[in-house]
Write a structure and sequence with these properties.
- By secondary structure, the protein is mainly alpha-helical.
- It contains 10 helices and 4 strands; from the N terminus they run ααββααααααβαβα.
- The strands form 2 sheets. The protein has a two-stranded antiparallel sheet.
- A hairpin with a 2-residue loop joins strand 1 (about 45-50) and strand 2 (about 55-60).
- It is globular.
- The relative contact order is 0.19.
Length: about 240
């Protein structure tokens, strides 16, 4: 689930702070936040629009619904290109490489850096909304304002830019894939989706410890967010 992915992403980001190519408290917080937001990116393969009483309603994963039609439409396209949910964007090898490469390309320009950073920050806000007071970050307008405002603030105060963005994005994506591998649904074998285009069969692999949404998952998420907070505070105070 989204909050589980976000929390484990935050923990992994905080755990890697001693090796992170960032400087200062702001850089450390941004590094951890990007890991948390990027840990939702593989689920950007579920999105669409449903109609209820003649009104359009965005559907799909948390990250797909984040900015309303802007993201649900894009997620629907990504889902088709990826071959459906938990296929291409969940490839243990290709997913971190592709998302990391996109983040690298975005980091080359100030404006695309802003958009990419805002996107993963917005995803982190949505994924961790249960520990954030209020509900502003769960609304489309509120999330847009907060994520772009925070991203702009980070970029203004980090003269070196966000060259580290690809590493944090790829790491968060890998955390997501590993998390889904633990569940019964599992993830595709490496390169399963592109090989299927050549006539091969798509196969999955799973450790199968629990089902998505099981009680153990909520427990892991709670422990993860506490661990992330402790590791981040220790790094900032150290």
């Amino acid at each position: 689930m989204a909050h589980s992915h976000a929390c484990t992403g935050l923990t992994a980001g905080a755990a890697t702070l001693p090796l992170a190519p960032v400087h200062g408290p702001l850089g450390a917080v941004a590094w951890v936040a990007v890991w948390g937001g990027a840990a939702l990116l593989p689920d950007f393969d579920q999105g669409g629009i449903s109609w209820k009483r003649a009104l359009p309603r965005p559907t799909g994963s948390t990250v797909a619904q984040m900015w309303g039609p802007l993201t649900t439409g894009a997620a629907a396209l990504v889902g088709r290109l990826a071959g459906g949910h938990r296929w291409g964007t969940h490839d243990p090898l290709l997913a971190p490489l592709v998302f990391g490469a996109l983040a690298w390309a975005a980091a080359l320009n100030p404006w695309t850096s802003l958009v990419a950073l805002a996107f993963v920050v917005g995803a982190a806000l949505r994924g961790c909304h249960f520990v954030i007071p209020g509900t502003v970050e769960t609304t489309v307008v509120g999330n847009l304002a907060l994520s772009f405002g925070l991203a702009w603030w980070v970029l203004q105060r980090t003269p070196g830019g966000v060259e580290w963005l690809p590493w944090a994005v790829a790491g968060g994506v890998l955390v997501h894939v590993l998390g889904d591998w633990l569940t019964v649904g599992g993830v595709p074998l490496p390169l399963a989706t592109p090989l299927a285009l050549l006539g091969g069969r798509r196969r999955r692999t799973a450790l199968g410890l629990f089902r998505t949404g099981a009680r153990v998952e909520h427990s892991v998420a709670a422990v993860a967010v506490l661990a992330a907070a402790v590791l981040l505070v220790r790094h900032l105070l150290g």
